[in-house]
Sequence to fold (634 residues):
Amino acid sequence: MITNQQLIFYSNFLLPKKDWILAICMLIFSVNQMSAQGKTISGVVTSAQDNLPLPGVNIMIKGTKTVVTTGFDGEYTIKASSTDVLVYSFIGFQIREIPVANQLKIDVALNEDTNKLNEVVVIGYGTQKKSDLTGSVSVVNLESAKKTVTYDAAKMLQGQVPGVTVQSSGEPGGFVNIKIRGITSFTNNNPLFVIDGIMVDAPYDFAPGEIESMQVLKDASSAAIYGVRGANGVVIITTKKGKAGRMDVKFKSIVGLQNVAKKWDVTDREGYQKITSEAERNRDIRAGVPISIAPGNDPNSPSYITNVNTDWQKEALQTGVVQNQALTLNGGAENIAYSFNVDYFKNTSYIKTPQDYERLSTNLNLNGKKGKFKYGVKIGYTQSDKEIFNEYNAGQTVISDILGAVPTMPVYDSNRLGGYGGTDNLTQRAISMNPIGYNNLIENNGKRNRFLGDVWGEIEIVKGLKYKLDVSYDRTDWQNRKFIPPSDLGWYYITTNDEASLDISNGNELRTFLNNLLTYEVTLGKHKIDALAGWIQERRENYNHWSRGVGFKPGEISMMQYADSRDAGEYKFTITGISYISRLNYSYDDRYLLQANFRQDKTSLFSEINNSANFYSFSGGWKISNEKFITLPK
Fold:
């Protein structure tokens, strides 16, 4: 490399003395020209949220038309001078401006622009600008919602949306009850769930980590387009789609612990014996009969219990473990992009029983665009296994059994059939369930396999007029098995050989949808019109086979052929439906808004004279902030 000093020396040596000064001037001029042309700046642009590279980011020299774009790896190079300012911009992210100064390498982390991400929301059979909504639609803050580690996407709504209450039993894999704006039915009050345009009864078969957005339709005007199924509200879930760029690989692993934060104060053995003795004494005094106290609670009785003092909360409660691992692959090109996810979830009970929940789910989304044609494919498969808590009587939960168990009843008793403790009708005169014994003796298992497939294509016929065909296939197979063996859990809770039973049920449900949707958008001066018309076909098939065996001896194999008596049956049904939908959005000068929705449902459940119903809604809005006579602070 020749330095400036060396160049001056060579100039002095090769040129006559009168010319070397001219050579120096030419050198200085050339150096100034190189400085004016600029230097090469390089760097990497990433997302500030997950530090992943961002392909397709525009880097522009402010005030010029010079623009470069980052590659698949987020890297870029651009020629700029020290006085230039680089502007970094990407859809969905905040714009950043960085002066070049003396830097040769500039790495940039862009923050998501939440206002832009929330600008367009998903509504029934389409999307709409958030500022143009005339119905009650709430957008869930997923960043906050995903802090809840759960198996059920419905549970993510807890504390996230006004007017929505979420209640769950705490049981691993237990069903979640949701109410939107209170109780609206004597039976089922849960809302309708729509996942990527597919209507489902509940989302607990799908991994919450794959959710990209959630919207809640809370009033009649926004949910009317779903007909009677939207009467309790609608939760619309959109899963992550593929994005053009190099393959991004993400892996997450979460392990959590579950404990009962606060235990109830209950009596110990002595306290319980004193209270029950006083209750029996007062009862007999009022009745005017001789006082009779349970021998197990009477200190003067030889049967007085002193060797058992069970703290049922201490004996029954333990630390539950929640674990969730997920692997996500995302990438592709404009013609076809993919997003593939594998998710494993397991939750062991915080009660010392075998009840737990385990699920493996996969999801593949393909989407692309070719000219005026767009398409998408969704394939999801879930396999789950759940050990179910048992109720002796309806509403008699394991928690209520723990709190109601008497301290004079032992957890284990080798003298009783089954090896678990129980109460005696003569000694203790107490009907008390042993929740540890009951849930360990009974085998109650449920298995589910679910496949969800969806294929859609959309073509723009003319400018603003689009036709979309969407076909979905949703199949669930299940098997439930419950075996109650002969056992002795004390007074009232004795299962004899003749009462021991085995119940097995298995079946499947298949739901298919065929959606034909036509949309048209046009702007005429200050008038903006957005129209939707659709024809939907639905078919639902359900099959269930059950068998029951009664009569098992202690230790006998819990198989149907060993039962003393057996019974079986099956049933199936098919329901078909046709729906017609339409919606009209009108906006004038981005100030006055009108929306009308219509749906007609026809079903094979009823006779032709009563098999259809119509649902309407109308709503309006006024963007007072866009009026010229009102000035609002920015």
The first strand starts at residue 39 and ends at 47. Residues 137 and 217 are 5 Å apart (CA to CA).
